[in-house]
């Protein structure tokens, strides 16, 4: 006796338990799992470290930068700022922003000034660093780079004043001298420590000349 055997094989109805909710898998998903390719369907959990804010990823602390700006613009010890943080805790983005801003106000339509000012900042700081080490100072290049960059702020402050009094030559010259002395004093007071003793003028003088050169790049003199 021959019996007529017929029928169909239905795909298994597989359900996943995700947090108490059951989700029905598709035929393709089941097919992959049965043949050992289920790993293709796995989804990795997001790493909390990958979701950091951009400023944190770039190691930019705006509060720290703002505090350092105040330390540079107000270098008088009587104001109570811990000015040594500019030297002892150097950063890169703050000084770079100051140098770029100084470059922008120095443009006068010549974009090559930006790259030249950045070059002077880097190699001028390197010169001050090498001189400081020769004179026996314990200072790192990153510290010099940060201090020299931040100390451009006084020159940025006097820039709009020079636009107003530019026609008065005597007043303009006095403001330029004030700006250079302000910037040089702010930088030198951070970089020239007690370890230099009688050699302080050997380091203060090139710092002063460096800011004179920065000012000349702005004024075009």
From TrEMBL:
Any one GO CC term of this protein is: Golgi membrane
Yip1 domain boundaries: 81-216
The UniProt entry's GO biological process terms, in alphabetical order, are: endoplasmic reticulum to Golgi vesicle-mediated transport
Its record classes its membrane topology as: Multi-pass membrane protein
Q: Which domain of life is it from?
A: Eukaryota
What does the sequence similarity comment in the record state about its family? Belongs to the YIP1 family.
Role, per record = Involved in the maintenance of the Golgi structure.
The identity of this protein, by name, is Protein YIPF
What organism does the UniProt record list as the source? Macaca mulatta (Rhesus macaque)
Could you read off the lineage of the organism from its UniProt record? Answer: Eukaryota, Metazoa, Chordata, Craniata, Vertebrata
């Amino acid at each position: 006796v021959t019996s007529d055997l017929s029928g169909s094989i239905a795909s298994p109805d597989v359900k996943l338990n995700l947090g108490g909710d059951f989700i029905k898998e598709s035929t393709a998903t089941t097919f992959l799992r049965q043949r050992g390719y289920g790993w293709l369907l796995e989804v990795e959990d997001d790493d909390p470290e990958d979701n950091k804010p951009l400023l944190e990823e770039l190691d930019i602390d705006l509060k720290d930068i703002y505090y350092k700006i105040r330390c540079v613009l107000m270098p008088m010890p009587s104001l109570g700022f811990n000015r040594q943080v500019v030297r002892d805790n150097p950063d890169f983005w703050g000084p770079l922003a100051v140098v770029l801003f100084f470059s922008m106000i120095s443009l006068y339509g010549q974009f090559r000034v930006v790259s030249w000012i950045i070059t002077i900042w880097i190699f001028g700081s390197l010169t001050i660093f090498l001189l400081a080490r020769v004179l026996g100072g314990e200072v790192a290049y990153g510290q010099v780079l940060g201090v020299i960059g931040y100390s451009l702020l006084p020159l940025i402050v006097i820039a709009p004043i020079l636009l107003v009094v530019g026609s008065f030559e005597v007043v303009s010259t006095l403001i330029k001298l004030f700006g250079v002395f302000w910037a040089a004093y702010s930088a030198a007071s951070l970089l020239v420590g007690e370890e230099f003793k009688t050699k302080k003028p050997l380091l203060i003088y090139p710092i002063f000349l460096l800011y004179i050169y920065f000012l000349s790049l702005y004024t075009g003199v």
